[in-house]
Amino acid sequence: LIKLFDEIPFKPTYYFAQDNHIILDNKEYIEKLDTTRFVKAHYAGRYHIPGVTYYKMLFPKRPIGFSWDIANVVYSGQTVTYSMIQFAAYMGFKEIYLIGVDCNYSAGNSVITAESYFNPKLFNGSRSYAAPEIDTNLLAYACARKVCDKLGIKVYNATRGGKLELFERANLDAVLGK
Fold first, then answer.
1. If exposure means fewest CB atoms within 10 Å of the residue's CB, which of 11, 13, 41, 46 is most exposed?
2. How many CB atoms neighbour CB 128 within 10 A?
């Protein structure tokens, strides 16, 4: 999504990255962002980026953890969106809107293919990305919903289309005030 910032009608306050390939492929974009940037610390020496805040990540798959102290640890859930939900909950947000979380991937030979992306700028055909672990993603989202419901935090899915139905849907245009 970072490659589309010039085309979207809003600028995010926070930017997150945790996939090593995404970080390496987009290092120059991340360096230039005029926003608060959070990047997974694992392998940070390979992609040192001045001015970012690095966060420690754990990767348990079952059970999925939910962080109550992001300064100490953030749990993966195999998706950056899950990490972002933990940050937002910790920061005190009472409403969280997910955008672009489609859970709809096309994979060939266990790698993501171009058909998974709604915009060709997002697909780097010169690199193979491992297919997402949708089952782990869904477990993480279910954990997020359970925790957020308990905390009185509403999580909405404002993605146009997609297959993630664990969260109540919200209209993206209404969310953006269009």
1. 13
2. 14
